[in-house]
Amino acid sequence: MTISTPLVVTFIIYIFGMLLIGFFAWRSTKNFDDYILGGRKMGSLVTALSAGASDMSGWLLMGLPGAIFLAGISESWIAIGLLLGAWFNWKIIAGRLRVHTEYHNNALTLPDYFSSRFEDNSKLLRVISAVIILVFFTIYCASGIVAGARLFESTFGMSYETALWAGATATIIYTFLGGFLAVSWTDTVQAGLMIFALILTPVIVIFAVGGIPDALAVIEAHGSGFTNLFNRMDFIAIVSLLGWGLGYFGQPHILARFMAADSHRSMHAARRIGMTWMVLCLAGAVAVGFFGIAYFDNNPALATAVNQNGERIFIELAKILFNPWIAGVLLSAILAAVMSTLSCQLLVCSSALTEDFYKAFLRKHAGQQERVWVGRLMVLLVAIIAILLARDPDNKVLGLVSYAWAGFGAAFGPVVLLSVCWKQMTRNGALAGMIAGAVTVIVWKQFALFGLYEIIPGFIAGLLAIVIFSSIGPRPSPQALQRFDKARQAFLSD
Q: Which residues cross the membrane (predicted)?
């Protein structure tokens, strides 16, 4: 395989830039609060863009355009569901969670927040939630490493084993060095690169096919229903795709961005920035897949790679339509999407191991610098385990990820939502909701009942369990109610 020099150079410049940001973040990391949550001083722009970049991953530039290319515009229902879920997450959860984590013992992680919010002296909530995070996120990390390896393998003709390390090493280094600051700053750069790629590419594709009317004519001739939003979609299918939006309430890597903001007042501007970014990126991804149908119908000789694997459509369009230097920048956007998600997943796992196991059970009085270095070592540990899981690209890791989003959404989503909105919620309710949501997702997935996406029954089961067990068990203490009221008043103070 002939390797493009511009492609190599742009990738090297991009990776070096990320490492440089990691070095500057390392210089700015003074204590464990800095390493895990950036000292709670992230502004609106960084909060918004880092939340978006950590959310989307390689799915935005490969999975979604590929699905649209293969099945038509009806696959965009998932994008609609994600937009709705993200907006409600910003509106309902973001500011409230920022305030509540501060008023509940300055909690740095979700398990720490659950434990403090519900006065769980048994530490059962902390342990169960930390275990859920570690299991699902280690698998998530492995899938991200596989995606990065696939990109390096197909772009540079590397062996899979070499590509595995090439794709993961830079992310591990800057996460190890700079922690949350490095992850957030690099996410902001990566979000900019992603939106640049997803605005420029569909515009050039539309010009290449002669404009939107000509493209629509070709797509309609391609197959019946490719321009129909309801093609092959029944009520269950639409509800299932929209249901993806429920997952946002329980994703630890996104919620951590809210917890790290400099103030709950920053969320108003952050929501506008984040949602604008998300709308443009999702619309661009849909447009790449949709108008790519017309381009490759007009140029069948160039369609071999995309016919074999629809997820390569963005890669192939970038290589065909752009100068090699521009193509290198555009393909770096895929690496950016993969790295932004992988880095925050590594950090969330590290924080769970350090704060919720090491400090909580082994070294209660561990100092700031000790915890920073334990956190760094935990990044390496989780990364090594994820790489070992990813060594076989056919090991079904990616199959497990398909319901990891549902697992987090159903296990944590109802707990987070009601914990910041309902002061009568109790520790037993939180524990029951977490278990009911996770178990329902796992069982529903095995039986695929009614073809309904498992996050929907899981989320409903979690909500019901919280309400029932909070109503029949011991009431919250006066101190817990007082802390809730103070947090609520602080949130409403703007």
A: 6-26, 67-88, 124-152, 164-183, 195-215, 235-256, 277-296, 325-353, 373-390, 402-422, 429-449, 455-473
Amino acid at 28: S
C-alpha R_g of the chain: 22
Q: How far apart are CA 456 and CA 441, in angstroms?
A: 9
Cα 489 from Cα 484, distance rounded (Å)? 9
Average pLDDT, the chain: 86
pTM of the entire structure?
Answer: 0.90
Q: Write down the residue that tokens 């090491």 correspond to.
A: 358
What pLDDT score was predicted for residue 488? 94
Residue by residue, DSSP assigns 51-96 as: HHHHHHGGGTTTHHHHHHHHH-GGGGHHHHHHHHHHHHIIIIIIHH
Which pLDDT does position 51 carry in this prediction?
86
Q: Which amino acid is it at 125?
A: L
State the pLDDT at residue 421: 94
Query: Quick check: 378 and 350 in contact, CB under 8 A?
Result: yes
Contacts of 134 (CB under 8 A, 6+ apart): 349, 352, 353, 382
Report whether 247 contacts 403 (CB < 8 A).
no
Structural element, H or E, at residue 493: none
CA distances from 12 to 17, 164, 176, 198 (A): 8, 16, 19, 21
Nearest CA-CA partner of 53 in 80, 21, 86: 86
Contact 253, 348 (CB under 8 A): yes
Question: What is the rounded distance in angstroms from the CA atom of residue 305 to the CA atom of residue 452?
Answer: 33
**Separation between Cα atoms, residue 427 and residue 97, nearest integer Å:** 17
- Tell me: the pLDDT tens digits for 411-437? 999 999 999 999 999 999 999 999 999
pLDDT at residue number 272:
95
Residue 449 region, left (φ>0) first, then alpha (ψ -120 to 50), else beta?
beta
**Phi and psi at residue 391, to the nearest 5°:** -60, -35
Q: Distance (Å, rounded) from C-alpha 82 to C-alpha 70?
A: 20
Query: Whole-angstrom Cα distance, residue 483 to residue 461?
Result: 28
- pLDDT category at 395 given cuts 50, 70, 90 is low
SS3 label, residue 426:
coil
Average pLDDT over residues 456-471: 96
| CA–CA dist 462, 484 (Å, integer) | 21
Q: How far apart are CA 272 and CA 187, in angstroms?
A: 17
Contact call for residues 69 and 292 (beta carbons, < 8 A): yes
Label residue 1 by pLDDT band (50, 70, 90). Answer: very low
pLDDT at 402: 67
